[in-house]
User: What shape does this take?
Amino acid sequence: MGRVVDADRGADSDEFSDLNADPQPLGPARWDWKTVGRVLVVRLRSIGDTVLATPSLFALKRFLPHAAIDILVEDWVAPVLEGHPYIDNVITVAKGRAASRALVARRLRTNRYDVVYNLHGGTTATLLTRATGAKHRVGFETYQYAWLHSHLSPSSSALWRRDNTHSAEQQLALLGWTGVPVSDRPRTLLAVTAEAAAAVTAKLRKAGLGDTPFVVVHPAAAFATKQWAAENFGQVARALSEQNLPVVVITTPSQTSTVAALQRSASAAVVSFDDLSLPEITALLARARLFVGNDSGIAHMAAAVETPSVVIFGSSNTAHWRPWVSDAPGSAAEIVYEEMECQPCHGYFCEKFDLPECILRVPVNRVMAAIERVLRESAR
Assistant: This one.
């Protein structure tokens, strides 16, 4: 696993220097793996959660190259896995729809999985894990309905022997406890489909970029506690434009006010896309010289295609959610955040201040310094 620098502390926060060249499991085999022909991974919720499950998919396919590896995700997230080389089937469930859950439960039952890993632990994920009827249903012993599993793993911290573990490590730990080699902590990976690449190429040419190196900026976030000011992103865009690095802003149609505020602050022309599909976002990120954005699923997508990144953090736990970068040349990444006593927190809203100071106090000059370092490091 690669090197992630904490730009605020100016120190290398790499915790992965003790990795084995030959990957090892984190526990003995809990059953006879020779009898396993079909495995299901349950990973509901967001884009970032799904992207950070891809190291587990790789570890399973490497360990069981002839087995079918399926994944269950929410329908709106599923396109991010389009064309993924380590997945045989992507099964989807509609969020909040009981009828969809019932239909999916019947399908899972008929698939006759040998092993099911519940990487989520929420109520729906656990009930669907149980509905598979698989003999080996694996979850953490801390899950709310742990008794619905047949095998219960200790915490990822206990397995990795560290207090703080990354989300990717947490998911890998569940596999490793059952005998799957995971000690090398594989990187995240997304596929760039030919259709998405062609669509992005056409959009860039229409925008006048062609083969010009560019920076992708994602100024949106799920919560205010994770959203750096749009005006700050505008200042970053202006500075990058002055370095002959045009900026491509990606948002959704509902975020027009954010884009407008960014453009006013940038005082320079920026290209904006608000209609990209998830596969097209993957393709765009894969072509970018740099990604700059908030802690979000899009940031994890950038890391999964090895795009150099600078990610601004607010309320989130940096140890658990920082970019999961590889050791490949050019895959540099930095995180920038304001260290506060109340950080990290749940992030749904700020309990201490009228406004989320943790993200709002991050100054532009520190973000620009991180950008300069990442551009310089990745150029090597």
User: Anything to note?
Assistant: The chain has a mean pLDDT of 91.
